Amino acid sequence: MNGIYYYLIAFVIIWILVGIFHEKLSNYGVELNFPVIMWKTQRLRGLISRISNFSPTFWRWYMNVGIVVAFLAMIFITWTLISSLPTVFETPAVSIVIPGVEMPGSSIYIPFIYGLIALATVLVVHEFSHGIQSVGEKISIKSVGLLLFAIIPGAFVEPDEDELKAAKRSSRLRVYAAGSVANITLAIIAILLVSLISAGIPNYFAEDGIAIDRIVSDSPSDGVLKEGMVLEAIDNHKINDSDSYVNVVSLYKPGDNVTVQTDQGSYSLTLDKNPNNESRGFFGIQANKHFELINDSMGPIPWVLFELLELFQWVFMLNLGIGLFNLLPLKPLDGGYMLEILLSYKLSEEHYKPIVNALSVVMAMIIIFSIVVGFI
User: Fold this and answer.
1) How far is CA 251 from each of CA 81, 208, 270, rounded to the nearest angstrom?
2) Which of 179, 248, 272, 306 has the fewest Cβ atoms within 10 Å of its own Cβ atom?
3) Per-residue pLDDT in tens (0 to 9) along the chain, 376 residues
4) Which DSSP letter does residue 360 get?
5) Closest CA to 232 of 260, 192, 190
6) Residues in a beta bridge with 137
7) Would you call 102 exposed, middle or buried from its count of C-beta atoms within 10 A (0-12, 13-18, 19+)?
8) How many Å apart are CA 331 and CA 368, to the nearest integer?
9) Domain count of the chain?
């Protein structure tokens, strides 16, 4: 069963339970306002305040630089989204990604456990950073919590809206930029850890082929090949490493009949069209380097390096992707509010509001169009 059904079942159960017991649950901070369920608590406010007060000067200057980074990132992600339109039918630039679920139109599959951990880092770092910066700007935090918007989970830090609106524009810019800048910072840390781990792997392992990590459902390989098989050749083209694998796979077109030789036998496939390039043959497998241990001085411990490597890769990808997406000039994303504040330095509200609202509509249309095309 596709992983999306497990999510839907879980969310239906949550909605039923909250609907039945919402009066009792309200005593524990649960609020039901269809289509949103919110759980609010004040327990983490003290922790956020302590982190903010640990070095107020650092947080202020970190986010002063962060404002510049955020606007540069806004320009980059906006240009990337707009420039993707000519190729949207081949490779949609925007797609929904859910850990453990194959989403139509997305070439990215996020493993369930790694995806959940990485997504948790996105939410915690993003929302805590908003809270830390709010405290630093003398804006009170009313609550911290989790939410479920229909079937979309999330987290939030709730600042005092009146105090936020009354704050200086520079203070509001720092608060709005804090979440995405923190995500980008964590992405940089994660990719540095990936580089460090990758540099250490050759001390213990040697590449000896390509292993199948995942079979795409309803693909030519579905029901034929299996996860864990090691690819040895395709139509007698030897596969010794990742480079030879890429070179061999690129030779094939849709409709080609191929023989895949693995460590568990040979199998015949008829290739389909690649969703990202219809002129290329599609096997329906996701493969990765296969390694053998050549230095057992630490026993099986070095195998943990591969688990950490994959985890930090997803921490990098989700924090960077979601952090950048949140900086789009689109309300109610942080980028939309930041653009409004920036324009307010030179324009009156009656002029900058229509500009941001119109830009928000355009950005939303592009995003929705890309997602719909992916599904089609």
Assistant:
1) 31, 22, 14
2) 306
3) 456 777 788 888 999 999 999 889 988 889 888 888 989 888 888 899 999 998 889 999 999 999 999 999 999 999 999 998 887 777 777 777 788 877 766 667 788 899 999 999 999 999 999 999 999 999 999 888 888 877 778 888 889 999 999 999 999 999 999 999 999 999 999 999 999 999 999 899 888 778 888 888 888 998 888 888 888 888 888 888 778 888 888 888 888 899 998 888 888 988 888 876 777 888 988 888 888 888 888 888 889 999 999 999 999 999 999 999 999 999 989 999 999 999 999 999 999 999 999 999 999 999 988 888 877 6
4) H
5) 260
6) none
7) middle
8) 15
9) 2
CA 135, 141, 146, 152: dihedral to nearest 10 degrees?
A: -80
Residues 161 and 242 in one domain: no
Structure tokens at 54: 């640990």
Q: Are residues 212 and 98 in the same domain?
A: no
* Residue 182 and residue 67 share a domain: yes
User: Following DSSP, what letter does each residue of 67-119 receive, concatenated?
Assistant: HHHHHHHHHHHHHHHHHTGGGTTTS-S-----TT---TT------HHHHHHHH
Q: Which of 130, 71, 119 is nearest to 319 (CA)?
A: 119
Domain that includes residue 89, residue range: 35-198+313-375
Cβ-contact 314, 110 below 8 angstroms = yes
Q: State how far the Cα of 142 lies from the Cα of 155, in Å rounded to an integer.
A: 14
Segment holding 136, helix H or strand E: helix 112-136
Q: In 3-47, at which residue ranges do the beta strands (DSSP E only) sit?
A: 30-33, 36-41
Is 26 a domain residue? no
Determine the Cα–Cα distance for residues 56 and 61; give it in Å rounded to an integer: 9
Residue type at position 226: K
Looking at the structure, do residues 253 and 358 belong to the same domain, yes or no? no
Residue 49's H or E segment, with its range, is helix 45-54
Rounded distance between C-alpha atoms, residue 323 and residue 330, angstroms: 14
Distance between CA 211 and CA 230 in Å, rounded? Answer: 4
Rounded Cα distance, 231 and 238, in Å: 9
Tokens of 103: 């989403």
Question: pTM for the full model?
Answer: 0.84
CA distance linking residue 134 with residue 59, whole number of Å? 11
